[in-house]
Amino acid sequence: MTAADVHTLTGAYAAHALPEDEARAFEAHLAACEACAQEVRELQATTARLALEATATPPPALKRAVLAQVATTRQLPPVVRPADETAAPARQDVVVPLRRRGRWTAPLGIAAAVLLATSVSLGGFLAQQHRDLQQQRATARAVAAVVADPAHTEHTTRLPAGGSVTVVAAGGQAVFTGADLPALPDGKGYQLWVMRASGVTSAGMLPLRSGVTQAYVPDVAGGTALAVSVEPAGGSAQPTTTPVAVVPLV
Amino acid sequence: MVSFPRRLRVAGDPDLVVLPGAADGPAQPAAPAQRPLDATLLRVARGDEAAFEELYDAIAGSVFGVVRRVLRDPAQSEEVAQEVLVEVWRSATRFDPERGSAQTWILTMAHRRAVDRVRSAQAASDREERVGAREHTTAYDDVVEQVETRLEVEAVRRCLGGLTELQREAVNLAFYGGYTHREVAELLDTPLGTVKTRLRDGLIRLRDCLGVSGDG
Fold first, then answer.
1. Of B31, B72, B74, B104, which residue is most buried, by most CB within 10 angstroms?
2. Distance CA B43, CA A45 (A)
3. CB B27 to CB A47 under 8 A?
């Protein structure tokens, strides 16, 4: 199949007209093609309307059976994002007081200041799971401490499919941000990993909003890099795909 | 790109810089008031069984309906519909309102499960008995009570009417018939590439006629 051909599969994919192996192969393409991923989202919303057209009155027995089974069925736990770590409030005591100056850019450098600005809005992401202003602000302080640390390291990497990610690290903690990241199809997510000589550990699934993501990782001690890979939305124990980005921590 | 934030005073924390959008606290997903089912599903994700019952009342008819349209067999349809609805409960925490609506999430799952059931169970000869999918009728066989759903059904039928006959055939066979694109090509005696294009063009036309956006 030529490169031009693969884009025409969006309709077949949305209509579930691709057999299993072709569907998986197409999902790999979607991870790298934002235009296709957007089109798939729209066509899935469209096929959902086709499903509505088939609406019928279900037998009453169905409701009884479903409610009975639900009462004895455990739900999957929520996806835990790195910024939910309860270690965050404990970091308040290592916050470096920020020098007051006219503009943030002066003491920190432009990239770091932008990072800080976007990271503080982390509260918006957290709030979807945690409507707790205290937690948001504690994490924001921890983020500020990392960025304000005069010994912090900062690295940015571009992704092959578009977008870039930046890691700022200091004192065994790291702040991770990404912009213009390609959207992923339903059922897939970006997972963040800490790479150490001893092995790779998950730092959780990255929240993604219009291509932007942010995460605070409270423990990267001994880590050499942070990596991002595309995984099933529930996360994997170890990376199952080649990372789309690897960013040094040191 | 990110614009530099204006400095806001947040009580008790003069060093905290807050972006204008985040100043009021939790960020809201797109237009939740227009998508009440999203709010219900988010409550289901927190284990709210009363919310699940509300969700059932809102969407089970469509789940059952699409499953039955694809599977045709009434007993199997009830079984698969039950599987789907219980899976909605079980995996509700995986619903991400940023990626699309609850309606899309649930009905995509329902359609996929119905199609998987068709493909896993049946031998080729059994499949041919379902050739009835070709003569897809447009008559109601059930009373649909909610006005919003009736309007929705009218809109979809009107928009389906706006497709070319060839596009409509491909969409009907693939979506309601549950056939793979190769099977559709076989049934219509048409090249595979043509079928792929018709499916894509037909769904795009439907999308535009219905006014669907990526988060609809």
1. B104
2. 22
3. no
